[in-house]
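Entry 0007
Protein: Universal stress protein
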Amino acid sequence: MTEAPVVAAVDGSEHSLRALEWARTAAERHGAPLVVVHVLPDHTQWYAGRREALGSAAPEPADPVRAFLGPDVLAGVLRYEALMGSVPEALRGAGRGARMLVMGSRGRGGFTALLLGSNSRAVATTAPCPVVVVPHDARSAPAPGSGAGERQVVLGLHAAETDDAVVDFAFTEAAARRGTALRVLSAYAVPPSPLLVVGGPYAVVSPDLMAEALSDEDRAPAEREMLRSQEQRLRPFRERYPDVPVEVATVPGDAAGALVQDSEEAGLIVVGRHHRRLGRSLLMGSVANAVLTHAACPVAVVPAQEGD
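Output (structure tokens):
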């Protein structure tokens, strides 16, 4: 197979098994192969290194995750790889050439109250491919009732700065879900207000609070201009994906609060890793950080195309 694979990162935790199931479904939607990877724990890597250095005849170190998953779970998987090195570094390597890399929001070593694990954040910040972070049970929205269709894909769009690769990923995901709507959400600038001052680098301001701070006169011109910019930016993608229903929405201020609110009903939130003004630095914008931390559904963090 030459099709770019969907890569699922697992560590044997319930959080990673949720990610594996999401990755399996994504691979089926796209007709792509599924690759499952696991980064061996430090003690296993140390044992393997000592064994190799000493030329020992001791048995190969066992991979606990392969045994935990078993043949039934791994049926239909193109390959399973046990990786060496630090988790972020190893998964960055596994993501080269992948359609996407899927992982849980918190691994086996995460604290119970942690919203987003350090490895998930590090991989989403630096991987060369789109990274889908699947939230753990405590953050997940309830599953749709029987007879409900696919949940919509939501794209956080900055009309002037979001890379084409981000927009194309969102349209591709909506198209793969056959008939699922793509909701495109953009934020327009608002004048500073003391009502909107919040603490913390990844805090989320609700759209209702933002709207309360604005008069109709403040809102209307900026909203109309954003809708115009949205339409212009989306036109070539609508032509390329004519079967994808698109709905557009605008909110005042930062889009993070509205995206987190939408995540309660969405199947996937798609955001760019960084704005163009941040250059090629290994940074995520505040919207991506906030959505990764608080969203109730899977979040795809998409890097810019090489050369942009």
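Curator remark: The beta strands are 6-9, 34-39, 79-83, 100-104, 131-134, 153-156, 182-188, 246-252, 268-272, 299-302. The longest helix spans residues 216-240.
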